[in-house]
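Data availability excerpt. The first of two example chains:
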Amino acid sequence: MTTSQPRPDCPTRPQPTPRTRPRTRPRTVRSDPSTVRPRARPPLWDRRFTLFFAARTVSMFGDAMMPVAAALAVGALYGISGVGYVLGTWTGTFVLLVLFGGVFADRFGARRLMVVADLVRVLSQGVLAVAFFAGPPPFWLLVTMASLAGAAVAMFLPGANGMVPLVAREPQRANATLKVADALAHLLGPAFAGLLIALTSAGTVYAIDAATFALSALCLALIRLAPNGSPADTAGGTDGSARTGGSLRRDLRQGWQEFRARTWMWAVILIWVGYGVLVFGPLVPLSSALVGARLGPNAYGLAVSFLGAGAVLGGLLALRVRPVRPLAAGAVAMGLYTVLPLCVALGAGLPVLLAGHVLGGGAMAFWSVMWATSVQTHTPPAVLNRVSAYELAGSVSGIALGQILAGPALALASPGRLLLVSAGACLAGCAALFAIPAIRSLRRAASADGGKPGVV
């Protein structure tokens, strides 16, 4: 390769001499800290989360109506024992099958399995609606449909927990928003169900419940998850990447290994089983008996409403506060939950009783958001549904056992004394949460919003 040179017989033009400029020091621009804008938080209400929120909200509203429908409609036909059998069948089926729900959600895709579960509940609640419209349904039909609905919930819930990181880039904001919706649903749903049964019939309640599941299935079917190659599109994370191979036993074992490998997780569930047996399980039957006998049934209904109002406040607080150590902050909140069984046991007046329920509802909602966010952000997406299934099974089994033992325990002590035990167990549980280093030192996972966490 040659470089062209100027011809010797053609004189070259003189090049202009560059003008020299005086050197100047580069200006240093100092930024005013007050004018520096923090990095914008990612939007929460995009299409995916809006559809997911709509699906969960209508589904939770339908779920909130069912205990009242069962208590009033089934109780009027088959008594308290009939209500117990129906609800016990639902809970028992859920506990038995929830682990398989986590495996199937990882195998076939959480969204797809949730849609199928919703359609199954459309069938179960629709059959009951037709049966109540036609006349008193036979008891075997109530038990069968309760078992079918419990199986559907066992398939639905593990995927619902695992879907949150897929539809929201900041899981804590999403969990807090869903918790507020859940609290409002449980605040309005029972009253709406009672009004419908008084004005129409139980068949109307079951028909509306079936319609909520149909709408939930439609919203979930419209969700389009992240494309291939994104962090959300890992194994088991989306429908397109769901796994279909492998043995069921191996999948269960892998989920158990992931669950057991996190000391903070299995330690919390062990403590939560104790909470379920000694606090959450017996609280409703014992407190309803005490408050109803002393202040009347309307007072207990008002207290439950204030519990829901407190849960709304707790969810709103979780929207604003992002503690560095979420489980430690949640344990502090659970210390306030002690006030609820204590004020019932001590026979507090109505204002104190209502304040105790507000504190209890807020404490539980705040803990729930901190716990769900920790599980979702510290677990690999490929096994999140199975891990969620293990923690759900542990939590619900403790509550079910506490509900079963509440009646026989009355032969040993009065309801007030048993609730004092519940208050002591709540304080002991908080102390245990703080005593385990893996729980109190678990730090908040890095979030996508870039916001500054709190100081806890």
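And the second chain:
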Amino acid sequence: RELSVDELRLAEENGSLQLPDLEGLDKATGLALDGGAAGASNPFGAPAPAPRKAPSAKGALSATQCYSSVVDGLKHLYKTKVKPVEELYKFSDFMSAPLVDGDFDAKPTVLLLGQYSVGKSTFIKHLLKREYPGCHIGPEPTTDRFFVVMEGPEERTTPGNTLCVQTSKPFTGLSSFGTSFMSKLEGSELPNELLKSITLVDTPGVLSGEKQRTDRGYDFVRVCQWFATRADLVLLLFDPHKLDISDEFKRAISAVRMASDDKVRVVLNKADQVSTQQLMRVYGALMWSISRVVKTPEVLRVYIGNFRDAEYMVKDNAELLDREREDLLNDLYDLPRRSVARKINEFVKRTRATKIHAYIMSYLRGKLPTFGKEKWHARQIEKMEATFRHVAAQHGLAAGDFPPLEYFREKMRDFKIAKIPSISKRSIERLDEVLSNDLPALMKEYGNPFASTADGEAASY
């Protein structure tokens, strides 16, 4: 019988698709099946396929080779197995937009957050050893927009609307925040050695006091969360004279930590402006302020220094500040080597989130009544916590992997559950295959980026 396209694809995935036996065909036709000829040149001119490069004696690939190979594998898994499930259950209506190639190919990103005049732009200038196009430095709020500082062949700036339509860059998802935000987004390109390895994101100063009443025209906290989700490192900048955490800053920190705790660091900038005794008091006050927002037993790593191109104002702690600055710079320069592991980690988190989202949506769709849908919908929003518990218990899912309750409730208010199909067992199986089979096989094939050898190469299993 004639096979459908879906049946052929499924047979290929299961390994049950067998090619016909062509033994003896080369002798019958006088052509060799490897692209050469049986005693003669190939009349079609087709070269034999290049043999795969054998692994090195150490059985490991370099960090760059591992990055390219693993990322290509992640792209394939996402497009063929994860993205179809996201589209089926409207994952992007609740979480982030579908990933594009630029998201996988993006360089490691560093996000800088802090109040105005704590030295964010000066910090970037210190790293690059020059100002970036569009940069303004001063004592009052000077950066009123998000600057994405990238490596480029020449100095130029790119408006946000243009930046968000370039699929080769990982910023297409920002278009969902509207034109008001995109008018406050700008790409800044310049030739720079450091920017060949990482991308820096400078942000507007966090508002405090009466200035918090100012309407930015877009959701600042959600934009910060979007960048933090995709960043490899998030730096929260303070200075000895700005240790308070405003309501807006508190919401931004909470949103950033929701993206990932392990990549958040604190920088106490301008620490050379106080004496040793004052620095101890400032450090204690900073940790107290942070503890009111970050309510976990783990303490965030704090770097103490002054990141500007000038001599220290107070030289009492020069040795300490030098060591701290060196530690932070080493962490930044080490980001490219750790980037592959982060991409895999984020991919796993997204796949798990997609699976949980599919279960939640299917459960609600199964309860949808024929009549009285609006009242039922309102009740389900109020009962969402019980729904989460039921889905977690029914499918053996970890409660910590579920989306934030209030955030999910808010998204559900305008969502039409009727457009969700019933649960597809094959869809869930495909996600399970990604986590239990495909990813381990990918890392076994190209090297495990979570393990490292002494010389910084990615080790194989």
